[in-house]
Design brief:
The protein is of the alpha+beta class. It is built from 5 helices and 11 strands. A 6-stranded antiparallel beta barrel has the order 1-7-8-9-11-10. The longest helix has 15 residues.
Amino acid sequence: MENTIHLNGIVIKHEKLVQIALSTPNNVYIAEASSPYADYYGHSPRTATPNSIFLFTKRFHFLEQLMCYTPGIEKCLHERINIASAIIESGDKQFPAIRVKDFPDYSQLVKLQKCLSEKNMPLVEKIHLEEEVKTIVSKVFVLKELEPDFFIDQVEEHKGYFIVDRHFESEEFQRAITQIRYNGVCKLFDAEQGVLFNNGKLIHIVRIFSEALDLDMLKCIRKEFVKL
């Protein structure tokens, strides 16, 4: 029997968000990740399709709140929706947001805004973001344990995870990942840090994205990471 687990956690990224050119009521600010998995697709002949949309809200909403609202939003929208709670850090400011993953049709964002408004979740009309921001996304993980300390995502394709002993400063993490990427030992990948919450305990993880993802690849990257 597959060992599938459901855990809450966060993924931390440093990425570029661009405003979506879309006429919406009240001209609310909606943005998307311009280059998701940039360290993978930046070296690949394929072009990435942006798949993370951020709707900036006037109040912060915990993940548990969004999970309670989701059935009503889906009923209003007539679509299944993958939403998560987010904080966007830009300079010395923080902006609350809702992250929407793999939204079926950008033209339905106007309808989504209306559905959120009916749930008393008003959106922000205008904000200013720096060229690169830090996104902290709180979401539900559905994982299959391949071996102790190694997991594969059961919802999002081409994503796997391995456990590490601590959280690393951004510069330290990127320096190690860049060294692994260019030493040619492991296959091409994109990596970010995250945390899982399990029975009141923090579990530090590294998220790996690759279309060639498998257990051997996760082991290769973790082995090189531990060396550094």
